[in-house]
Amino acid sequence: MEEKIKALRDALKKADQVAVLTGAGISAESGVPTFRGDEGIWKSYRATDLATPEAFARDPELVWRFYNWRRELISKVTYNLAHKALVELKGLVPGFTLITQNVDGLHLLSGSQNLLEIHGNLWKVRCTKCQKITLDRSPDLRTSPKCKFCGGLLRPHVVWFGEALDPAILNKSVDASRTSQVMLVIGTSAVVQPAASLALEAKSGGAVVAEINLESTPHSHFMDFSLLGKAGEIVPKLVEAWG
Ligand code: BJW
Ligand code: ZN
């Protein structure tokens, strides 16, 4: 493992452009539940009941209860050593883009810049009528919050299954992946599209691709480095002893 970490650090040191893709696993050590796996959210709740536009149209109160539960949980936790190490990495390499699937806002809280939140942000709400997006950090928003501009029903500003990602954010993510010389893929099961294909974009653009995860994923077979373990332990080691 130490050899692999050193070799990956050497690749990072040579890179002009580094892209990082993160998923729920990077926040797991902060106490945020992941989606899949034995302890994952989708073990207790069905994604189709809670994270689709159809679910929201059918029962907005149920969907808001789910998001209020997560807002409250996330309001009580903070970023961890892996989030912090990525802030440090940005300061060490010439070009750096952090692409996250997470909606928990912990990368922003840790001070990350050049951040693309491709699935949105749990702390933002969007009006279903006038489409205005506002930031609201109150942990409990009640179950039918209304827009202060037009009175329309608010929804979480997140990307649900079957919804398109913001094209501008997706384009920037694809560009950053294609032009990277190293891409780190941290704590994602790599099953949700189009996020999962960003690692393939990087690989086909000639990047060194490295995965940091507790277990192997559908991407492991094309990874140049597969580092099995906790993000909070491995990511800080990449920026230690940089020299
Ligand atoms: C650790 C760790 C530790 C734990 N250290 N590691 C092509 C093929 C097949 C399907 C599709 C396709 N294109 C589109 C689809 C459909 C769908 C999709 O991908 N479905 C698949 C599941 C089959 N995609 C979509 O619907 C997307 N939309 C779209 O493509 O629209 C097209 C369109 C175009 C034009 C018009 C209209 C439509 C949207 C996807 C949105 C995903 N949304 C969610 C919810 C966000 C809001 C919320 O949070 O409530 O995003 S679903 C959920 O999954 C969330 C996550 O961001 C996402 C990814 O999950 P992630 O981060 O990988 O978490 P886990 O739990 O799966 O994995 C955690 C990993 O961490 C594990 O591997 C652990 O081992 C590891 N780990 N502890 C290191 N300490
Ligand atoms: Zn409105």
Walkthrough of the structure:
This protein has 243 residues and is α/β, with parallel strands linked by helices. It has two domains: 2-32 and 78-119 and 165-239, 3-Layer(aba) Sandwich (Rossmann fold), CATH 3.40.50; 33-76 and 120-158, SIR2/SIRT2 'Small Domain' (2-Layer Sandwich), CATH 3.30.1600. The protein contains eleven helices and nine strands. The protein has helices at 2-14, 25-28, 41-44, 47-50, 53-58, 60-75, 81-92, 106-110, 167-178, 197-204, 231-239; strands at 17-22, 95-100, 115-117, 120-127, 133-135, 154-158, 182-186, 208-213, 225-228. A six-stranded parallel sheet has the order 3-2-1-7-8-9, with helices on both faces. The chain has a three-stranded antiparallel sheet with strand order 5-4-6, with helices on one face. β2 (95-100), α8 and β3 (115-117) form a beta-alpha-beta unit. α7 (81-92) packs parallel to α11 (231-239) and α9 runs parallel beside α10. The longest helix is centred in the N-terminal third of the chain and has 16 residues, at 60-75. The mean pLDDT is 95. The protein binds ligand BJW and zinc ion. Ligand BJW binds next to α2 and β8.
* CATH topology category name of the largest domain: Rossmann fold
Spatial order of the strands forming the largest sheet: 3-2-1-7-8-9
Give a quick account of the main beta sheet: strands, pairing sense, barrel closure: 6 strands, parallel
Unreliable stretches (pLDDT < 50, length at least 5) are none
Architecture of the largest domain, according to CATH?
3-Layer(aba) Sandwich
Percent of residues in beta strands?
15-25%
Shape: elongated
Q: What bound compounds does this protein have?
A: ligand BJW, zinc ion
Give the averaged pLDDT, no decimals.
95
The first-to-last residue Cα distance is: 20 Å
- Give me the Rg, rounded: 18 Å
What is the top-level CATH class of the largest domain?
Alpha Beta
Number of strands: 9
Relevant CATH superfamily of the largest domain: TPP-binding domain
Strand and helix order: HEHHHHHHEHEEEEHEHEEH
Total tally of structural domains: 2
Q: Helices and strands: which structural class?
A: alpha/beta
What level of helicity do the residues show?
Answer: 25-40%
Tally of alpha and pi helices: 11
